[in-house]
Amino acid sequence: MPAPIRLRELIRTIRTARTQAEEREMIQKECAAIRSSFREEDNTYRCRNVAKLLYMHMLGYPAHFGQLECLKLIASQKFTDKRIGYLGAMLLLDERQDVHLLMTNCIKNDLNHSTQYVQGLSLCTLGCMGSSEMCRDLAGEVEKLLKTSNSYLRKKAALCAVHVIRKVPELMEMFLPATKNLLSEKNHGVLHTSVVLLTEMCERSPDMLSHFRKLVPQLVRILKNLIMSGYSPEHDVSGISDPFLQVRILRLLRILGKGDDDSSEAMNDILAQVATNTETSKNVGNAILYETVLTIMDIKSESGLRVLAINILGRFLLNNDKNIRYVALTSLLKTVQTDHNAVQRHRSTIVDCLKDLDVSIKRRAMELSFALVNGNNIRGMMKELLYFLDSCDPDFKADCASGIFLAAEKYAPSKRWHIDTIMRVLTTAGSYVRDDSVPNLIQLITNSVEMHAYTVQRLYKALLDDISQQPLVQVASWCIGEYGDLLVSGQCEEEEPIQVSEDEVLDVLEGLLVSNLSTPVTRAYSLTAIMKLSTRFSSVNRIKKVVSIYGSSIDVELQQRAVEYNALFKKYDHMRPALLERMPIMEKTASNGPTDIVQTNGETDSTILDTKHLPNITQPASQANDLLDLLGGNDVVPVIQTTVPTKPASAGGELLDLLGDLSLTGGPTPTPAPSVPMSQPSFLLDGLTSQPLFNDIAAVIPPMTAYNKNGLKIEFTFERSNPNPNIAVITIHATNSSEADMTEFVFQAAVPKTFQLQLLSPSSNVVPALNQGSVTQVIRVLNPQKQQLRMRIKLTYTHKGSPVQDLAEVNNFPPQSWQ
User: Fold this and answer.
1) What's the domain range around 726?
2) 711 and 574 share a domain?
3) Is 754 helix (H, G, I), strand (E, B) or coil?
4) Which band of pLDDT confidence, cut at 50, 70 and 90, is reported for residue 409?
5) Domain count, the chain
């Protein structure tokens, strides 16, 4: 048989291929030749054939048929064969394949080989793909090599020990005696790998962490020598002595100093020295400074040192490198809660980052800007953020508007400023604001009695300028309906009053009813406002005519309102003034969850959404009962939602497809239950506004974790309703520990037919990353028979651009929640 071509020739041939098909043909032809050679047990060219096979593997072609040939090369006595054999084993084998166990004896023999390079090959292979069984069998040999005086072997043995500890943590104590002298080594390679080994042991065992804290002075000494040492060509990188080792030591110091006063005290001086002496003109120095900042922030460092760290991050913000600016903004965002005043000094630089062209930097700068807002700088910061809202991309507008609403609610210097700010947001980005912004602004206006005339005049002017921003139009319609008499009378003292007639006001509202820009909800607001004005204006006949026209509207919601309002004019005219009188001052509801954005959590409170003033946003029965078949049929109660869901209507159908064949009872799939009339669940709202909602029993019901997977954690807290002790009120708290936000978050639930369940609206559909906030949602469960509570939940969200769906069954509710 002729000698096979060399690897270089194969590479040259493959690179001449002009098409993918031509390349595949060459590879298949060469693979056929290699297989023939393997079948003939050709020992002469086995090494060359395996090398070519590895190259094909790197190109993405299958090379699994060469696994056993790699084992034969490893068993060879020639170093060149062993080198290719071990390389092939690392690339083609892993612990999922039983073939790798055949290598154990060869690796053991090579670990005891007389040649250090053969020992090094076997250490690399074990540290790369050794399974837990191999690690248990060979840990003794690795520990022996860790104590050798040969620095070439010690550094490889240290990295191999890291892999062994990851695979078999209980073998950690075996390597403890060998670590005693590792930090005394002069060789930087051994020092580097030793620090990696110590870091791994400290992260995996609290006992090891306590044991190695005594090494802090030695680590500080090594770091000091690195900083103070002169030029060393062997370790110099851009004028800095071994930055890789410095970063590793700083990371280990961070772990050792966290939560320990003595260790933190011992490293304060060296951290200050590193922070002040490191050159920042090159990226190498910035990497060391960033690691120093993280260490200072994590340990119990002095206040002056923390200010120094934040000043370093402030300098990073001025760097031309986008990555460095992003890293600085992210780090400042993490430290702003603990060192608020120090971060405030860099406020102007942070605000300048809002103008950056990079979207990720802009987003981080926006989040940090909102974190810096307080009562002292609210006016200046809002001016900058409103300017940013005007010019930012649509992707930012929703988050920016929500942040401005929250900051204005917390720190508004006056009610007029608060109203002006929110109106500015609605005018600029009305289409992007959250659904709850309309009722929240209406509540704010209602409670600001002295500002009614000013507000209605401003909103009327805004309507004349632009009717495309639907939330603004809805608030303006509501206010004109409530305070139209103040608008016409020109009683505004805050600014020069405008002269408006009743007909002009009605013209504007009628224009909203026929405008193509108006949504059905906006038309409902406008019709209700016109009806309200029938008790404030003298043009009653014109209003009757408008209302009667919409009695035959194709929009069922609008038609129902018009029919009811017509009945008020005819049959109940004597009651009309009382029914349409001005809304009373609304009581502020509690903030829903850590986001602190005012929520009505389902908007069931009659003082927040009065059906005479705001459009009816209750779902039709067919949509509310989309979840009837959630668990398979008539052993399930429908979920009754009080607000329009954040997902499209098809979401219910998706849930049916997914869960239609499941049943909590475990029996055969029964037939679907009949629809429950929407009037039936009135027990859920009875007495909601007349009595305290919860009693003291809430304090004795322990919370529980219902779901914890992929960074998403769902916790349940429990309360019992005062009006009806058979109702358990469950509040879900969804948090996200991953590094990316979870968007389009939807929580759905179903219970057996002996229960009734109601889901109220969530506080948000975005679960912030890194546990920086949570989404809350209230569930009310009626359990008249006091049976053990069981629940099936479905979670839907988008994470890092990929849609995620998951199911879970919750059966471990605390007895106090259902007894």
Assistant:
1) 704-817
2) no
3) coil
4) confident
5) 2
